[in-house]
Amino acid sequence: MTDLAITSAPERSPSALYRQVRYVLGENPVTLVAFVLFVLIVLAAVFGPHIVPYDPLVSDTAEALKPPNAHHWFGTDQLGRDLFSRVVVATRLDSLIAVASVALVFLMGGLAGVAAGFFGGWTDRIVGRVADTIMAFPLFVLAMGIVAALGNTVQNIVIATAIVNFPLYARIARAEASVRREAGFVEAARLSGNSDWRILACQILPNVLPIMVVQMSLTMGYAILNAAGLSFIGLGVRPPTPEWGIMVAEGAQFMVSGEWWNATFPGAALMLAVFCFNLLGDGLRDIIDPRRRT
Amino acid sequence: MLTMIFKRLATAIPSLIGVVVVTFVLTRTLPGDPGAYFAGPAATPQAIQEIRVKLGLDKPLIEQFGNYVVDLAHGNLGTSLTTGQPVATELCNRLPASAELTLLGLMVSILIAVPLGILAATKPNSMIDHACRIVSTLGVSLPVFFTGLILIYVFYYLTGWAPAPLGRLDVFYTDPPHVTGFFLIDSLIADQPEAFVAALKQLILPALTLGVFSLAPIARMTRASMLAVLSSDFIRTARASGLSRSTVIITYAFRNAMVPVITTLGMVFSFLLGANVLVEKVFAWPGIGSYAVEALLASDFAPVQGFVLTMAVLYVMLNLIIDVLYGLIDPRVRLEA
User: Fold this and answer.
1) Which residue from A164, A95, A169, A276 is spatially nearest to B271, judged by alpha carbons?
2) From B322's CA, which of A171, A185, A199, B270 has a CA 20 to 30 Å away?
């Protein structure tokens, strides 16, 4: 890899970036679909509680377990709560958990990885050992163990999801930082008298950032799945809070008796959200780092 | 070859030490005071102190860790509060159910993913290539518990092809005599073909659920590695020598392309073992995952820790086996070692 290839990316002018975004979207319409989905998710997360037709927590036993109809688009659950309202309102909590855990791991893993790649030596060895130890567990199982130990709260689900993603972020950040450690612009910064920390903050970090942002988008889907999986087995979020994982769990018992809508709509919402972030991540990678296109 | 295996064994030791330390730390970070927790809500301070002494919680951390390791070495994982049984025994009894399900899930996922990946690589940008991409993206996007529920709805409720999703064997059958703990194998050994069919029927849906979730890495890797191999010189030579298309693809390309695919199996097992917990809950499967979930909801921590430790040790072992397998298949790895 040459220094030229590494340093050329951030110097792109805005109009060239716009052209490339348009090119990538045109080339791969799936990314466009993912983007539209993403906007919908953001809208539902921000305005969800204000636009839904029913209160997601109020039950109406006369209307219990009704299939989808004109009044209740997604049907009603065993307590007569409107499923459409619940699914939409749940978007905010699910997104918050995912965003919080990804932001947390971005800070922990990104900083640890960049430091490991830049300083090498002991820092590298310690970060590597921690990452290896986490990788020695099947990730979902470790997340279960962490939530069990720290206590059964939403906050701890965020922490557990962040910890199991740590090795991924640390490794990518480490690789990106160690490639640039000897790069020309770093040498130049060092020669002009910058301290290690200043180089790290002003030269290395901004260059590692784009790759990390792609990684955030790619792991967002996994974070949603992981958090929903934990709440599906009864950890973290508690009923009657609307959350996709727990709603699928509540609807599961009705699947064998034919009331499919209870579990299907929250499950489908979950699937669409994960699908959206996976596709978006692929699309973002194409825009930010065209060399990695497959 | 033996030196390679020993060297690889040596590298697994730090992982195992890490696993033991982490599970120990998880035990000690129990919310609040474990002594107070085990004593119950009505306990006097004196009773709590007694329990702390009994559990060894009054000793320094290093000593507690030493005792923990000694207990582990004796196969003692503590006792479940809800059932009163030793955790190690219960895990042993339930492990075959989980192992049978996971291995069958792996087989399903290989059987779907490998042919799909090969076909996609031989015809890049064709319909089958797009199908491969869609299936693998869907596979990782579908929450595994949701896939399981959809399969139950379609194949149990709508068509009635599958039996009720309640455990390993229909209530009309008795368990085959215990030999391996795998119902499929035990029923064959005991010469009970009906039990074999019944066990297989129970297994198909959960195994398919696991397979769909874990096929993405295998399919993607097969495709990528087949593409790389197919463009190499020796394939061109083989084609130029007039070998048939199937000989070139299967005998020459496939065998070489499989080497990197084996390394992705580590990741696949991480997916499978984690997803196993969710699938077991959906299908009321009496494995170690559902045991851990039940314990977790009852705030019974010893089984959860035993489960996490068992899974981690199993996973380290599986990775070890994969590495050794890799060495057996690819002589270059052996020479480097």
Assistant:
1) A164
2) A171
